[in-house]
Amino acid sequence: xxxxxxxxxxxxxxxxxxxxxxxxGDGYGNPHSSHRQGREAAAAVEVARERISATLNRDQGxxxxxxxATEAANLAIKGVAALAPANxxxxxxxxxxxxxxxxxxxxxxxxxxxxxxxxxxxxxLVDLDRAAAAIDHDTALVAAMLVNNEIGVVxxxxxxADLAGAVGARFFxxxxxxxxxxxxxxxxxxxxxxxxxxxFGPKGIGALWIGDGVAVAPIVHGxxxxxxxxxxxxxxxxxxxxxxxAKLAGESFDGDAVHVEALWALAQPLLASGWSLxxxxxxxxxxxxxxxxxxxxxxxxxxxxxxxxxxxGSACASGSGRPSHxxxxxxxxxxxxxxxxRLGFGRGIDPGAFQSAxxxxxxxxxxxxxxxx
Length: 373
Prior knowledge:
Layout: E1 2-3, H1 14-20, H2 36-56, E2 62-66, H3 69-83, E3 90-94, H4 99-110, E4 114-118, H5 128-134, E5 139-145, H6 157-166, E6 170-174, E7 191-195, E8 206-210, H7 236-267, E9 276-277, E10 288-292, H8 298-304, E11 308-309, H9 325-329, H10 334-337, E12 340-344, H11 351-372
Parallel strand pairs: 1-11, 3-4, 3-5, 5-6, 6-7
Antiparallel strand pairs: 2-8, 7-8, 9-10, 10-12
Helix pairs in contact: 1-7, 2-7, 3-4, 7-11
């Protein structure tokens, strides 16, 4: 099996697995207990928190562990909204955001909030002039993704954060696909969501970084863990795995970038053989190749190539049967979206195997289009 679905999830790094093992055996203490086993578990959680914060390049603010990025986004958006003053009942976001952001904003719209969803161009990028016009003194929060999970384009986060700050609004960044992969302008953000399983860590854990002075109300109530912002017993194993993966991401940052660029270069002949790139080539995370070809049925292509794991878009929406909202936002029609595939790659992908997978995809697409002719 050649795995090319890194935007959906990444393989568990051996370093992350080894860090988890002690806490799946004798280290079963509750990290919120005061006895020795509890204190040892709590210490492991704090080591993980420090490692993640270091890779995030944040020595200020606080890092709150969550069950994943979806919960982190909900906590950021609903938590800021709950404490926003009465004269700030407006949220601005982008049409290509992840469903956890768009659906949370839609829920707030149902509670009486004014929500502005900014369009993007055919390149997948937001227009800063339109953003500036939308972000007004009624705005409580601006939410924007760093690297798009479906097409890999990189939004102008610093500029959007500056626009938010200029009117006194908070800025939330979904950095899930960018954390550990590209430079993150963390110092311009008020809140940042990240996820473990996108950086070779375990599933079931993410985090929300909250800047100093940023007020957020809890959305999960109970024992008051995580500084009162996220109740529930933490898993030392998941935290340790996340911490090890984050540490490895920091150490491997430059080497991973070189490897991804080499794989991206190997994929370029594909774009000269009838395939078109969805979204801008730059600025883009080059570990995401979202492409389309007229006459290709992406679902059929995926089912035919059983030894290659790739997707037709977001794993979160793959079972819905609906065309991708991201590709639709680019102006693509239903036929174009259904002929689009997403290849995600990075650390651990062998260049030879990658080329073989690309050749197999091209051959299968050729067969489809020849039969349709």
